[in-house]
Amino acid sequence: MSVEPEVPIVQVEEVRENPVLYKIISSDNHVFTISEHAVKLSKTLWDLITNLGLTAENALDNPIPVENVNGKNMETIVQFCERHKYDEEEPEYTNYIREFVLPEWDRQLLSIDNEELFQLILATNYLDIQKLMDYCCRVIGDMAKDKTPEELRIIYGIPTDAEDDALERSASDSPGPSG
Amino acid sequence: MILNAVENTIEADIPVRAPLTLTTIPNDAIEKILKFCDYKSIMCLRKTSRSLRNFITQTKDSSFEAIQILVSNERIGWGFIKTAYRQDIISTNYHRNGGNGCWLFYGKNPRKSNVILGADWMDLFFQDFEFFLRHQRAPLEVFRLAFGETNDATFERFEKMLKSIIKTPLKTLRLFFDGVGATRIAALIHVFNIPLVQVIENKHKLREPDRDTMKIRRAASFEKTTVFREICSFEDLPEGFRSLSLIRHRLDVLRWYDLQRFWALTIDSKYPVKKCELSFTSIESEEHILASLGLCAFDNWPSGRIWIYRALGRRDNYYVIIMLEPNFASLRLECYENDNDIDL
């Protein structure tokens, strides 16, 4: 089966010295180019690249398919990784998690609706990008400020206990794989 | 600009599936989100659904703790208290005179108590305290700093060392000082780097000793409405509220804890509380009756919902926790200066 891109390749400018680029194909066949420094922010992708033995010479000829992430989320992720690829490590950051301020650029990037944000969290969790996960969670956590339980239920789409029970019942009533 | 280099905007092409919500994302992500929420938000989230409440209760980082530190010339003791499990107090005492070093006494596990040779008691305490501050993620509900007999040299050294380890504002919703004068409080507030919003003084006046019985040294009684108005008013305070309570009485009300169905009252007393009378608007179970009138000695309260601690091992300092049903109407407590004086 061919994995030829159906849309033009998304080019991401490589502004510094390292010329090694990798191609990533999203679940809906969008193709992205990402630099080596940026891709290292994703533990999953970097492990994959290391295991596949991709080098500077053959990297662009061997696109990496990522089945669990769609193009829209991948676009956000690539932008984020490219933006933060030269960031310094922040070893003490998680100790003062509440004091940390979300940079304005990232806040703009993550100004998307909640459903998309939750999808991005799933994608980030799959690709294991710690920093983006922290930022997404920060945005979601900030939404809870000064809200009543009822407002929180609407904002986060939390089902009521009755809805939860109904979902569980319908799940147990539905026929299993053999039924 | 990297952003401008992205040539194409990709159309959303998301497969149809059940909408994602906070409760359907991975647990790790929910935990992380909770770390970014303030205490009030988490308490609100707990009320949204049963599954989220269970999750929050079981998540380690969301079990908010209180800390109390007691400083005297001879030792520093500190105890961690989990709000949801008040009986679960982990305490450690750092004694000054431990032979050739610091004698460490573990309240929870006395058998493991030991002497750290060549170690200084205060250095050791601050080493541990700094470690705690560095790893603290959730804000404390209560931070209580109490001083026993402390001379100027000990206090100044304590203050100086405290100053050296507190880099960011202390993360606590409420701050209590006990047994310390106004000058020292001012110095400590400065060290804690806390934007003080409001000062609350304990307004409960204690009854004069009852000459007829002679046994009763201190007593306090509260009507429910008074308690709610004067003690629980912190519910209406703005987020990030921190308070300072000047505790001057022998029998002091520290605060109320909302534990879902129950209310719990914590009291710090110089003398053992020996009598507790509770009245309820309705009696629903035998436990109510048992709790409504208790005359008992240490660790022998009639109801399983009442605990007494000798706070940090001090002979003259007691810590009482009484769990109350929501329908309680009034409460009366009495304490006695001498255990032997009690005539049951």
TrEMBL record, chain A:
Q: In this record, what's one Pfam family?
A: Skp1_POZ
On whether Ribosomal protein is a keyword of this UniProt record, the answer is no
Task: Report if keyword Metal-binding is assigned.
Answer: no
Q: Which GO terms describe its biological process?
A: ubiquitin-dependent protein catabolic process
Highest taxon of the lineage: Eukaryota
Domain (SKP1 component dimerisation) spans 130-166
Stretches assigned to the SKP1 component POZ domain: 23-85
Annotated keywords: Ubl conjugation pathway
Q: Which family does it belong to?
A: Belongs to the SKP1 family.
Q: Which PANTHER family match?
A: SKP1
What name does the UniProt record give this protein? Answer: Skp1-related protein
UniProtKB/TrEMBL annotation, chain B:
Top-level division of the source organism's lineage: Eukaryota
Example of a GO biological process term: innate immune response
Q: Which SMART domains match?
A: FBOX
Domain F-box per the UniProt entry, residue ranges: 19-67
Q: Organism, per UniProt?
A: Caenorhabditis latens
Q: What is this protein called?
A: F-box domain-containing protein
The positions making up the signal sequence are: none
Q: Which Pfam families match?
A: F-box
